[in-house]
Every structure is written in C-alpha cells, then in structure tokens.
Design a protein that fits this description.
mainly alpha
C-alpha cells in the first residue's frame, strides 16, 4: 500500500498537476487508494450475511494480574510449637523446615 501511495503521489503531482498541500490532493489520494484496496477500507466487508464479523478476534491477556505475595507466613500448630520447644529448635527454624517440606 505504501508503494502504491508513493506512485499515486508521483502521478498526481508530476503528471496531473495537483498541489500536494491542497485538500483536493488528499481527497484524490484517498479516493484512489480506496479504489485500489477496497478490502482495506470498506467496513461493510467485515460483516457477513448473518451479521457476524468475518475478522478474526484477537485474544489478549486479562487487564488484571494475579500477584503472588512476596512474603508467605507459616503458622505452627500448638503441637508443633511444643515439639520445637522440646527439641530446642527455634520457632523460625522449625517454620523454615516446615516450609521446605511443603515445597518438596
């Protein structure tokens, strides 16, 4: 389409004497481009006889994102707290180990 527009410009300016700064020039370019590429401009071709669109629909990602929390808390049950104290392990270390075991 670009090369056709360049060719039309050259024809209109050099051979037919149109002023490229005038509204008539742009109207003529528009008219001739629509004649050359009716499928690119004619909006009635986008709808078939049943009224359904013939253009493919574009699938895009959702506008919202599900953001994972960067910090996950591990809760210990009272029996886990008792076991950690009996073993002499800090609650933080016990929770880290519990998290590790869940991931495996």
């Amino acid at each position: 389409m670009t090369y056709t527009a360049f060719d039309l410009h050259k024809t209109l300016v050099d051979e037919e004497g149109y002023d490229p700064k005038s509204d008539e020039y742009y109207a003529e370019i528009d008219k001739r481009m629509r004649l050359e590429f009716p499928h690119k401009f004619d909006k009635t071709n986008d709808i078939n006889i049943k009224g359904e669109s013939t253009k493919p629909t574009q699938t895009v990602a959702s506008a919202t994102r599900s953001v994972k929390q960067s910090r996950k808390t591990i809760s210990l049950t009272p029996s886990e707290v008792a076991i950690a104290k009996k073993l002499g392990v800090s609650l933080e270390d016990y929770a880290k180990q519990k998290k590790y075991m869940k991931e495996v």
